[in-house]
């Protein structure tokens, strides 16, 4: 194909993910490269993210109530998440089994099973949102503060 490659990410010592205009592919074995799997989409890809275990993309939906569709795959190619959402965001990352998103004024966490674990509007301009040491602990960096939050477990 004559597709433009937008990004190449190393997933681990043996695998890479190549993101393009209309999808992505995961390759293994650098000495004798072979494609593990490939996904193509008709919708516009807004974001792509990955870890050593997962590869995810967010597609533009353009609907009235649903703006985006998020799909996450194991590096083996098995789809583990396919959800629609309408939260605006600027940044997305996957750490462990959590997908962390933030916009200028909101932070959201989805679990890999699709459960929305946390969503909150933040005072100040959010610059970064990431995990802290310890279980259920996170940092929210704004233009005027650094806050450490702890999420409570549901009983």
Question: Can you describe this structure?
Answer:
The protein is mostly beta strands. The chain has no helices and 15 strands. The strands form 4 sheets. It has a 4-stranded antiparallel sheet with strand order 1-2-3-4, with no helix packed on it.
Q: How are the SSEs ordered, and which strands pair?
A:
Blueprint: E1 5-10, E2 15-20, E3 23-28, E4 34-40, E5 45-50, E6 54-60, E7 68-74, E8 79-85, E9 91-95, E10 98-102, E11 106-111, E12 116-121, E13 126-131, E14 137-142, E15 146-150
Antiparallel strand pairs: 1-2, 2-3, 3-4, 5-6, 6-7, 7-8, 9-10, 10-11, 11-12, 13-14, 14-15
Task: Write a short abstract of this structure.
The protein is mostly beta strands. Helices cover 0% and strands 59% of the residues.
Structural class: mainly beta
Give the strand order, joined by hyphens, for the main sheet: 1-2-3-4
Q: SSE order, as H and E?
A: EEEEEEEEEEEEEEE
Morphology = globular
* First-to-last CA distance: 51 Å
Helix proportion range: under 10%
Q: What is the tally of helical segments?
A: 0
Largest sheet: 4 strands, antiparallel
Note the main attributes of this structure.
155 residues, mainly beta, four-stranded antiparallel beta sheet, 15 strands, globular
